[in-house]
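For the sake of clarity, the format in which proteins appear in this thesis is described at this point. The fold follows as a row of integers, each naming the local backbone shape at the matching residue. One such record is shown here in full, so that the layout can be seen directly:
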Amino acid sequence: MSRPFSADVVATAPEPRIALHGDITADADPGLPDAYAAATSGGPRSVLLDFADVGFMNSTGIALVVELLADAMQHGRSLRATGLSQHYREIFEITRLAEHITVVADPATETAAAGGTA
């Protein structure tokens, strides 16, 4: 069963988090780009996409993530992803998104290990 998409922006320093909910399909446009715009309005160097509550993502949803990546690269910003199921981790590998979006298991631990910067 389809779950409507929504996104919550959690403005935490130094890295805002976008908590994604539901299905990432064509219906996630403009919600996902709008959430990304809100998260990046303060000019962070990195944004965390939290997929823990995503049930389904199709090729249109992947294309939306690619659009976020293109914007991030254009502005010298990095993207990180957390909460990906094994299936979507494999999709990120196959589509080569994982070469440009850092996939992390626990963002708090990995941020601390990196010296507190994201």
Summary: The chain has a mean pLDDT of 92.
